[in-house]
Amino acid sequence: MDESTYQRLADDALKAILDAFEDVDPDKVDVDTVGDVVTLTLSGGRRCVVNTQRSARQIWLAANAQAWHFSWDPAGRRWLDDKGRGDDLFGTIARIVKAEGVEVTFA
To answer: For residue range 33-70, what is the model confidence (pLDDT) as tens digits?
Structure first.
């Protein structure tokens, strides 16, 4: 995938994350964005960090002492974990925050 396609897809993914948390009570999830990094701080103090990795053409996610690397799957039109478990970016984020009692929907 070329640089401009990757950047467009990664930007769209980060925007979708921000949009999904737009109406969530900031006391439950504080959302902070700096450049290509989105940090979700959950009410219990746990953090979920999402960032782009241009050189690898991936989006990385870290939370709860775990890390995921997501690559774009053109057939499924989604970001899939590169370990082959079938985890997608948005579903993984939704699972992480649901464990803290927060429901989000990605458009």
So the answer is: 999 999 999 988 899 999 999 999 999 999 988 999 99
Short-list 15, 21, 11, 13, CA closest to 41 = 21
Query: Which structural domains are found in the chain, ordered by start?
Result: 3-98 (3.30.920.10)
What is the C-alpha separation between 86 and 58, in angstroms, rounded? 15
Angle at 62 between CA 77 and CA 6, to 5 degrees: 35
Q: Is the pTM of this model over 0.85?
A: yes
